[in-house]
Design brief:
about 475 residues, mainly alpha, 24 helices, about 70% helix, globular
């Protein structure tokens, strides 16, 4: 029996067990049902028992029928504001691809990255992580993914091919986008939320500079580590992809075309708006101006702006190539995360850490970070950060420990989840290229998750006495 059939059977059986057996002590019945949903979705997603987007419909069926959340609340969770970032950004990426602007970006990065396959992968990932320090992870992946596809096409990679460089570039970009987001407080909204929770729960204020002094070294170590892992999983050394041939095959005219010239200001303004979004939003009602707002504005502009050749920058038949199936898949992950939080499952899971107050502090930090990484693979990053900080505060009080030694690694861990396509926006976008195998993403993501446990704790504990 192959993995798909095993997953097809194991998923529903795992959920059925939560309906037939009593919940563990202290766990609400709704949380027990939500746990069954997590097992069911994880089994089907990880084995691809059904198409990923089909599996994403499970929360809409299970959560209302088990009393976790009604149908209206569940449906609303599928389309949170981040979806507009995803969709508007996809329109922007499609316009970049149509005009050929992504080919110029590909040539530029390939010129800096060296001639070997590993050097190219590391160069692309380094560029992605640097960009992700300033704008959101998903926005970065949306900009970089068409460039990666251009490189692969130029190197002779066929559509649907997943081995070697074909899968390495999309997975590498996804991982690097998430890693780069750790480096600064504006790299991902989770960072700012985690910093605010640290302040409110522990009375420790983390400034932009202080966060960067920990986050930048973590990113600088993590990007080469992730590149090494992806290269090993994708067996780059045995791949026939020739970066030099790919560079030669990408023809970019010396003269910029009219569509390229007109698209560059749109991309630049969107980029600047993403960077300064925390400042711009103060001019509007609370929650009125988000990263999704920027993407939606940019997307609409593309349908209005003439490209200089007698047509609009983007037409609907072109925009309709957006990965709508991935939107549904990502929405399913958001709905599952909502169910975990609403049911009390996340709260119950974090209370299980309280007995750690009797364990040596270094081991506490490692277990805490490993637990947060596990939770964030299935729950949203924000939910993981929000749920864990009260427990961290309790542990700090019980142990009399320096809050930074536990709180900061836990805050970084809330964004450190790499295994599943629906786990993060960048992972979903990598999956949408059609060049990623589930086995490779899970294998590379698991290895990076394990490395992250020691990296996050090690860097913070090493630097804390100095800073």
């Amino acid at each position: 029996m192959d993995a798909r059939r095993i997953g097809l059977i194991a998923g529903p059986l795992g959920f059925a067990a939560t309906q037939l057996l009593a919940a563990p002590a202290g766990m609400p019945d709704t949380a027990w049902s939500a746990a069954g949903l997590v097992v069911w979705m994880a089994a089907w997603w990880m084995t691809e028992a059904l198409p990923l987007s089909a599996t994403a419909m499970l929360p809409f069926l299970v959560l209302p029928l088990t009393g976790v959340a009604d149908a209206n609340k569940t449906a609303a969770a599928y389309y949170s504001p981040i979806m507009f970032l995803f969709i508007g950004g996809a329109f922007l990426a499609l316009a970049i691809e149509r005009t050929g602007l992504h080919r110029r970006l590909a040539l530029f990065i390939m010129g800096l990255a060296g001639h070997g396959r590993r050097q190219l992968l590391l160069g692309v990932m380094a560029a992605t992580a640097t960009l992700s320090c300033l704008i959101s992870n998903t926005s970065t992946a949306l900009i970089m993914m068409p460039m990666a596809v251009a490189m692969l096409r130029a190197g002779g990679v066929r559509e649907g091919e997943t081995g070697g460089m074909a899968g390495a570039l999309p997975i590498g970009i996804a991982f690097a986008a998430s890693i780069g987001g750790l480096a600064t407080l504006i790299g991902t909204p989770t960072n700012a939320i985690a910093a605010g929770l640290i302040d409110s729960a522990l009375g420790v204020r983390v400034t932009f500079l202080q966060w960067a002094m920990y986050g930048v070294p973590i990113a600088m170590i993590a990007v080469p580590t992730a590149a090494f892992i992806v290269a090993r999983v994708q067996r780059l050394d045995a791949d026939s992809f020739d970066p030099a041939a790919a560079r030669a095959a990408i023809h970019s005219a010396a003269q910029w075309s009219a569509p390229e010239k007109r698209l560059v200001p749109v991309v630049a303004l969107a980029f600047l708006a993403w960077v300064f979004q925390p400042l711009i939003e103060k001019a509007f009602p609370e929650g009125g101006f988000t990263d999704g707002t920027v993407a939606a504005i940019a997307g609409l502009v593309l349908f209005i702006l003439p490209d200089g050749t007698g047509r609009r920058m983007l037409t609907w038949p072109e925009a309709n190539r957006a990965p709508w199936d991935v939107v549904l898949m990502f929405g399913g992950g958001l709905a599952m995360a909502m169910g975990m939080t609403t049911s009390g499952l996340t709260e119950w899971m974090v209370t299980m850490l309280l007995p750690l107050r009797h364990v040596p502090l270094p081991l506490v930090a490692l277990v805490l970070v490993a637990f947060v990484i596990l939770v964030t693979e299935f729950a949203s990053n924000i939910a993981a950060a929000s749920g864990i900080m009260p427990v961290v505060a309790a542990l700090v009080g019980a142990l009399g420990a320096d809050p930074v030694l536990l709180a900061l690694p836990a805050a970084f861990a809330a964004t450190w989840g790499f295994m599943l396509p629906a786990g993060t926006g960048p992972n979903a976008l990598a999956w949408a290229t059609g060049h990623c195998s589930m086995r490779a993403m899970v294998k590379a993501g698991f290895a990076l998750d394990v490395a992250g446990v020691f990296l996050l704790v090690g860097v913070v504990w090493l630097l804390a006495p100095l800073l």
